[in-house]
């Protein structure tokens, strides 16, 4: 069975050292919170599934102060091999993910141009906040001396967000100024006319 993104994250953490699930959750949330959807319940379930597949195993329990005992886990050799295979495949092979936004752009002409401009400006505001949050998280990571190698996913996200912001800003300007002609009855007529078979071109 292919490793899920959360499974990859858990195995990656356990390749560093033995941990209990709550510590995995804390580290995963701090390092991968913008890259992988992480919920305590799903993390515990994934750890259990990985154990059932022989990719992790328990090493005993640990108690800190008056807290309840926590089961400790470590990665197995099979888990390390599965992680390396999965990460290698993800690094080398692009996978079509079919996100919603490109589809929305492809169908945006069905909405009037002023509304599209307004909506895209709203998206730009969201992107600005997202970029600020990613920059803040990166600065915090640097201040706590988290090695850059653990932050490459976030670097990628902020690079993509900045590129999208730049492209969208130019697109909004083109729509707003009329440099990008919007769908109109005249454009529809021209497209319809261009698809007509010229007279006499059809064979008898």
UniProtKB/TrEMBL annotation:
SUPFAM superfamilies: Winged helix' DNA-binding domain. Coiled coil: none annotated. Pfam families: PadR (PF03551). InterPro entries: Tscrpt_reg_PadR_N, WH-like_DNA-bd_sf, WH_DNA-bd_sf. Signal peptide: none annotated. Residues 10-83 form the Transcription regulator PadR N-terminal domain. PANTHER family: TRANSCRIPTION REGULATOR, PADR-LIKE FAMILY, TRANSCRIPTIONAL REGULATOR YQJI. This is Transcriptional regulator, PadR family. It comes from Rhodococcus wratislaviensis (Tsukamurella wratislaviensis).
């Amino acid at each position: 069975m292919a490793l899920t993104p959360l499974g990859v994250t858990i195995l990656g953490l356990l390749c560093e050292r033995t941990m209990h699930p709550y510590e995995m959750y804390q580290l995963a949330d701090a390092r991968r919170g913008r890259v992988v959807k992480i919920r305590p319940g799903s993390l515990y379930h994934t750890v259990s599934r990985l154990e059932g597949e022989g990719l992790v195993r328990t090493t005993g329990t640990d108690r800190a102060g008056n807290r309840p005992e926590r089961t400790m886990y470590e990665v197995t050799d099979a888990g390390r091999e599965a992680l390396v295979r999965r990460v290698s495949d993800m690094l080398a092979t692009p996978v079509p993910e079919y996100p919603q936004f490109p589809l929305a752009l492809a169908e945006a002409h069905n909405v009037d141009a002023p509304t599209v401009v307004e909506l895209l400006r709203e998206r730009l505001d969201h992107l600005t906040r997202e970029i600020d949050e990613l920059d803040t998280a990166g600065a915090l990571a640097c201040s706590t001396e988290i090695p850059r190698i653990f932050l490459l996913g976030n670097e990628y996200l902020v690079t993509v967000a900045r590129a999208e912001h730049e492209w969208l800003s130019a697109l909004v300007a083109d729509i707003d100024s009329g440099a990008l002609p919007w769908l109109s009855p005249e454009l529809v007529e021209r497209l319809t006319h261009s698809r007509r078979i010229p007279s006499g071109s059809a064979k008898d």
